[in-house]
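Bench notes, afternoon.
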Amino acid sequence: MRISSSFDGGNIECLSCASPEDIRLAIRKDNESDFYQWFFFRLTGARREECILKIENAGGAAYPAGWKDYRACASYDGRDWFRVPTEFADGVLTFRHKPERDSVYFAYFAPYSMTRHAGLIARALAHPLVRLEVPGTTLDGQDIDLLHIGEDGPDKKQCWFLARQHPGETMAEHWMEGFLARLLDGADPVSRELLKSAVFHVVPNMNPDGSRRGHLRTNAAGANLNREWQNPTLERSPEVYVVRGAMEALGVDFCLDVHGDEAIPYNFLANTAGIPSLSDRQKALQQAYPAALLRASPDFQTTHGYPENQPGKANLTMCTNYLGETFGCLALTLEMPFKDNNAAPDHRAGWSPARSRKLGAANLDALYAVLADL
């Protein structure tokens, strides 16, 4: 038997795999950081063996509450991901599987490689309304891809969509696939109308370095990008520095920052209720957008989520809080589960890439409902 993770997005340390029933593992920390929870690795040589895999340092992970009722993801081909029996006890995450083939992958959530990211960009650029800008590079020298979609005009709204500030939240880029596919579908009436009134600026992956390195939450320097928006630097957080610069040049009327949440088994939105300059217009939009998304997708809900910040108490280092305060715009954070969606569970796949893509597409209906009021 062999455990390997020396590939794009891989992360695991094999402590022992002498016996299929006693495979002991540990997750590596993000570089220059204490964050860890993302894992992605391959097991070979265990076909038709009853395997018991134990991640022994799971109790020290960034969000141990994320292991409650969690089931690990598995795949034979990297495309079809299913869940396997998993339990968390005494700080150890244990999952069991009897592989049908000589090779099986396990991951915290279905991965999204930088190769797949390149394909997403290439498909988008096949559309005549799409232009690619590379406003800068990461600390590891990777391009930061910014898509501009639509024709500029003096009265057009500037709508921004960001994903994977936290690289282990791979559902966010799966979401982007569904969002972009619908936005660029000329036969879709909602997308056609949106592009008449708005220009879209899309960063499908804000953190290429963390994605390739197999990080949960940080970039190559160990920076949590969603705590860098007030004072980003090229030395520590170039990803935020250059995207924020593009926003300052173009303006922001709307921003949706797409994430995943380790612990909460629902899809939900977080708003900017605690920013000091919160206006009545922003308050109304913060009610209208989730109401419209609720109508557009039964996979969304508004009962479960984060508590709202008290007035004036928002953390302005965070993306949506900073943008809402700086631009007076509607800025929201969308969270999806690593587990299942308890509002509509899927026993085989849990929350999945396919459902993430559908939710991405549904957000265009919500934006259409509020666009005139942005």
